[in-house]
Design brief:
Length: 64
């Protein structure tokens, strides 16, 4: 299975294997999303970390 750099590997792996993410996968996806929101070298934007964790959780486990 292939994927682009815009979709973190953990998302593809969790969906492909129908499994919950590890804490490390959740953190990695959240960081990927945070970097997309504020940039890799930008200072942490207020609330960006919490929003990125919520988005990562939704991407990895769903919203329900």
């Amino acid at each position: 299975m292939t994927w682009g750099s815009t979709i973190p590997r953990a998302i593809v792996e969790c969906i492909a294997h129908a499994r919950a993410p590890s804490a490390e996968e959740l953190r990695a996806v959240a960081e990927h999303i945070r970097c997309d929101l504020v940039g890799q070298h930008a200072p942490h934007a207020e609330g960006a970390r919490l929003k990125s964790f919520r988005a990562a959780q939704a991407a990895l486990i769903g919203c329900g």
